[in-house]
Amino acid sequence: MKFKAIIAALVIASSIVSCEKDDPVIPNEPELIANVTLTLTPEAGGEDVVFHWHDENGDGVVDDSEKTEGSLDSNTVYTTVISLNGEDEDHHEEEEEEHEEEGEEHDHEHGDDIDAEVKEEGTEHQFFYTHQIDGLTVLYTDKDENGKPIGLETTFTTGESYTGGAVKIVLRHEPNKFAEGVANGDVTNAGGENDVDITFDLGLNR
Amino acid sequence: MKFRYYLTIAILFVQYSFFAQNCSYTISGIIKNTSNKTPIVGASVFIKETGKGAISNQDGYYEIKNICKGNYHIIVRHMGCEDKEKSIALSNHLTVDVEMPHLVNMLDGIHLLNKHPKKSTQSTQVVKLKNIQKNTNKNLANQLENLTGVSTVKNGNSIAKPVVHGLYGSRVMLLNNGVVQSGQQWGNDHAPEIDPLMAGTIKVTKGVGALEYQGSSLGAVINVIPKEIQEDPHLHGGLLYFTETNGNGHNVNLSLEQNNKQIAWRVTGTLKKYGDRKTSDYYLNNTGYTEANLAVQLEKNMSDSWMSKVYASTFNTTLGVLRGAHVTLSTDSENGELSEYAQSVLHADEPQYTETDFSYDIDAPKQKVYHHLLKWENEVLITDDEKYTFNYAGQIDKREEYDVRRSGRSDTPALGLLQQTHFLEATHQKKYQNQLEVKKGIQYTFTDNTNDPETGILPLIPDYLSHQIGGFALFDLDLDKWKFEFGGRYNFTYQNVAYINRNVNRDVEKYDNYFHNYSLATGVDYHATHNLFWSFNLGLTSRNPDINELYSYGLHQGVSGFEVGNPDFKKETGVKATLGLEGNIDFKWFFESLVYAQYIDNYIYLQSENEFTTTIRGTFPVFEYQQDNARILGFDFGTNYLFTDNFKVGAKYSFIRGDNLSESTPLVYMPANNGLLNAEFKGFKQGFFRNSVLEIQYKYVFKQNHLLENQDILPPPNAYQLVNVNFTSEFYVSKTKVNSYIKLDNAFNVKYRDYLNRLRYFSDDLGRSIVLGIKVNF
């Protein structure tokens, strides 16, 4: 008897509590770096060379087809800017269209101004451009509060012997910017953790 | 208080006296050894209030004459045993028989053979109050480390979880006062939210048959049992303080209790603070922690047959994680070898961000964990042999993990989980003809797990709720030399999961999961002679996949791996057999051994796939949860030899080997084999050190050699050896009992790393530490 009563009580109790989990609130992902854009502008004038890496799904796998690469001239000085952001405009539009179709509101955003965050926390960040390309020199042209480079702005200088090759771009968070060689762009002693770690193949315009 | 566990005092003699005030009463009785019931000679018994006393004779008999009517505390004292205190109300001649756990104290962790010392045919080991108090500086998992067959998985010293016979996490059921601990047990870097200082005893059951609890017991069951409230109408308590040099730790613990006619109560509170810990030669930056816990126990006899108990506890902690362990170990995209940077991190002498100064600061990465439990227990006696229990337990578990993030987001948790659990239970227990005991019951658990959307990161595990309904029946047959046990359980789980898809639109996918879990266990105990017995236990149990095993997806920074779950996993089913032999020769040489074999069908584990995923943060090895068949074999052995009552030596050894049968490879994360030698000396006859114990412990942990080269990013660390020294003593300051202890851990400041400590990739383990503790009992 008692057990029947208990079972009945349990059944009632379980019918009161819900059987379906509410839809979770989808978090905003302000830190997500979806795009890395490296823009090289020839100092003497000419067309920009743009390298781009798009990775929409955050920690998901990068689709290599979303990578855009370009070629540089030899004997040229390029004023170079690297830019990070959450999503490009195209994507926003695409997404809004999709949401409109579904009759939903656009309810997630990605950080658009990661460059500003990196700049503001310049003492805690540094870009490293590592390469073994003959005839290519990369120099920092920006500085943080301590006079150490950040690497958002650089110059890429190609010489006569420039033939192209791979440049590995690493953004380190909380590196030791005072360690030996770090201010000159040597990542070896920097420490810290990677926010960005990608490789672009630089071509040569013949 | 603490002695209550062993204390059996019988008040036998009742004689009515016509005189109200009289000073001619006698207290007498026999002092016996708990274990073999032999009389204890030369124990002193005295009245705390008056100091009047006597010494037990050849038969263990004592007599204190000419005592006035009144309320007293009597104290029984014998070398090698902890003093016992008992409150008495004297209005007549009184017989007080006392059992002193003389041998038990000498033997620590080894069972003594007399009738049925074990309640079950399961192999069970117990950490007693004495040992908990000796190791007050250790957290729950580390408290269990010295039991054979038990080790710990750690993420630094403050975050540790117990491993029993090679299994841990949700395969090891943790019971907090008989309630299945509900929290985020799936995480390897999530320590159990229980304060061991609240415990009176901790029991580890190594078989699979603890079927009366609604949880997965595929591996083992660890039950943390609070101290019982002493039968004493006066207010009593204890104040404990200790300090530890490594980490400049300080801890205060206060407990108060009273057992008056209306209600019995106890309150225990702990405050703890540690700063950066230190290895043999550098500080581990950001490894401090703070803890604040409180537990309240209430017991009341509502009527002659109805007893009600309430237990409420709160556990709150902030744990720092080694800053230098929070770095990206990316691999080379071409060949999958660790990148140069990763190599340099793994082979560095000391971790990154190591600072030369000690600090109490706890910055990101850190964890904040809050766990609250409320249990209401009701016991209704029908007859002496039959009872019902009706229990409710509610739990709230809140976990926040903070990462190092940009733009002040380090103050926003990267993982925020809130879990609520409600548990209802009814059981019935009846004894038939003093031989057969039958216990059955039904249980229901509701769990609701929600992520904090303010994290700004897609959650590692999804939101879900679950309903669990189950029932069990246990049969326990007690014959002369034999004891048989048989039990079964069925559990149904419904899970509703709301998973955020990783596609661009971040859609919500709903999953409905239904799991049927069965368990069967059988055991037999055979007392071959008075001093030797065998036990055999066989159990079958299944466990449904954990939420993380089904749905994790993302970069797990702490292990530098990209973890991928599989929503199609089936449940795990394990069969485990244990064969135990315990015995002694002339109460001089004691031994216990346990051989076990476990086969697990569809064992779920994290396997490094020879695949790499390229994210914008670099290329990482992919770890996918896999299901394969596994086998774990091992044995535990422990022995003690008593040279005299004052001097004993002991040895323990644990061997374990795990294999993945489907892949013909070793199982990863199996503890390394280890051995322990110890010697204990209690020979101080007189004076201040009269009740003192000196213990020297030597531990040897072998290298985990049963592992293939490609199964880990770093080869397992070398074997290591540690020496620990303990000195405990008990003395009186006027009439107040004071316990004190000094401990020296890692006496030779050995530099070592342990295979199951995840921080081994980055840093050494702890160096030398001295702990100084004092406890005042009143």
TrEMBL record, chain A:
Q: Where is this region: Disordered?
A: 86-111
At the top level, the lineage of the source is Bacteria
Q: Where is the composition biased (Acidic residues)?
A: 86-104
Q: What is this protein called?
A: Type 1 periplasmic binding fold superfamily protein
Native source species: Wenyingzhuangia heitensis
The organism that produces this protein has a lineage beginning with: Bacteria, Pseudomonadati, Bacteroidota, Flavobacteriia, Flavobacteriales
TrEMBL record, chain B:
Signal peptide (from-to): 1-20
Q: How does it sit in the membrane?
A: Multi-pass membrane protein
InterPro entries, alphabetically?
Beta-barrel_TonB_sf, CarboxyPept-like_regulatory, Plug_dom, Plug_dom_sf, TonB-dep_rcpt-like
Coiled coil regions in record: none
Report the subcellular localization. Cell outer membrane
Sorted keywords for this record are: Cell outer membrane, Membrane, Receptor, Signal, Transmembrane, Transmembrane beta strand, Transport
- Name the principal localization, coarsely classed: membrane
- The residue ranges crossing the membrane are none
Domain TonB-dependent receptor plug per the UniProt entry, residue ranges? 118-221
Q: Does the keyword Transport apply?
A: yes
**PANTHER family of this UniProt entry?**
HEMOGLOBIN AND HEMOGLOBIN-HAPTOGLOBIN-BINDING PROTEIN 1-RELATED, TONB-DEPENDENT OUTER MEMBRANE RECEPTOR
Q: What is this protein called?
A: Iron complex outermembrane receptor protein
Q: What species is this protein from?
A: Wenyingzhuangia heitensis
